[in-house]
Amino acid sequence: MKRSADVIQKSDDENQIPKKQVKFDISHEEGSRKPYTTKVKVSTWNVNGLRACVKKNACVEYILEENPDIMALQQIRCQEDEVPESFRKSLSHYHMFWIGSDKGQGGVGLLTKEKPLTVKYGIPGVSNQRGRVITAKFKRFTFITVYVPNSGIKLKAIDFRMIWDQHFYDYIQSELRSNSNIIISGDLNVCLQSIDLANPDKNVKTAGYTVEERRNFRELLDTGLVDAFRHLYPDEEGAYTYWSFRNKSARLNNKGWRLDYHLVSEQLANNIKDCIIRSDVQGSTHCPVVLRLSL
Length: 295
Fold this sequence. Notes:
Elements (H helix, E strand, L loop, with lengths): L38 E8 L3 H6 L3 H8 L3 E5 L10 H6 L4 E5 L8 E5 L5 E4 L11 E5 L4 E6 L10 H21 L3 E6 L23 H11 L3 E3 H5 L27 E6 L6 E6 L11 E6 L1
Helix pairs in contact: 4-5
GO cellular component, one term: nucleus
GO molecular function: DNA binding; DNA-(apurinic or apyrimidinic site) endonuclease activity; double-stranded DNA 3'-5' DNA exonuclease activity; metal ion binding; phosphoric diester hydrolase activity
Catalytic activity: Exonucleolytic cleavage in the 3'- to 5'-direction to yield nucleoside 5'-phosphates
């Protein structure tokens, strides 16, 4: 589901390894499956269909190897009762929370080693949510995973996107007022800068890189949020998290978009230890993005 004159939709058929790998350095410095203490590892991944990703032996294997404290999944394309039993059993050391979509087009999941104090689903004011937001409150921070609506081919859904952006902005403002430590992880369906996509000049009227979407994202950041990856790597080029299946060589040649993010409240910016794009992890048209944070 995405972009470009040559990049617009997602599929399960992407199996090529990108030419440029930003980083691939899976390690286990936290070492165990115990709840986190001071170091937190968060991974986000648009799996473009959880059941399909599991069938490819990609999803469970990645999570077990990465061993994150929090795993955020987007575009699961299933209801909670359709989550594969093999997935649940293999990852039974996680608390799991799900919000699905009636039409199987969205849905997000949250896996966490530590049980949240509270969990809520969706955001106020949006009727057609298609399973887009889960908010979990912990003792030291609030975690939000989100799958932002795509504006669609020929921007046919941009009006809904603008409405969504406003409601999400209001929601985040409200959360920031009540909790200064916030982490937002997910597919935000936008590239802010020209270096965030391979062909910016060709995509100024394509979903994910329109003036309106970039303006709204900039305003969201201005509420007091920091893009963790750009905070550490402000000039890094070729750092993409999504490659279209329509262009068969897109991933091989690294012609992609950076659509998947970890945002943290400004108070946590100095606590960011790393933000890593796992560009050679297969199983979806997106790849995982990992945040390492100390609290």
